[in-house]
Design a protein that fits this description.
This protein is mostly helical. It has 3 helices and no strands. The protein is elongated and about 50 Å long. The two termini are about 20 Å apart.
């Protein structure tokens, strides 16, 4: 699954930005989201388990982020013409 995602990522990301701002847009958007979601995910997962008492609570967090990601991709396809 990771190979499918990372195989298509450069193509989709480069299609999302105009040529003049492609390097800045790619580097900023990718690194900002990786640092925010990658950095805070362990803390959020621990908080969810502590608050709910359920060991599967982080799965709901992953589900919500996946749905947001799918909606963003669909919006990109529709509004920006990303292929």
């Amino acid at each position: 699954m990771t190979a499918l995602y990372f195989g298509a990522l450069p193509s989709v990301m480069s299609d999302a930005f105009p040529v003049e701002a492609r390097a800045t847009g790619l580097s900023f958007s990718y690194n900002a989201t990786v640092s925010v979601f990658g950095g805070f995910t362990p803390t959020i997962a621990t908080a969810l388990v502590t608050l709910t008492g359920s060991d599967i609570a982080p799965a709901y967090y992953l589900l919500v982020l996946s749905l947001i990601s799918i909606c963003a991709l669909l919006a990109g396809f529709r509004l920006r013409g990303i292929r």
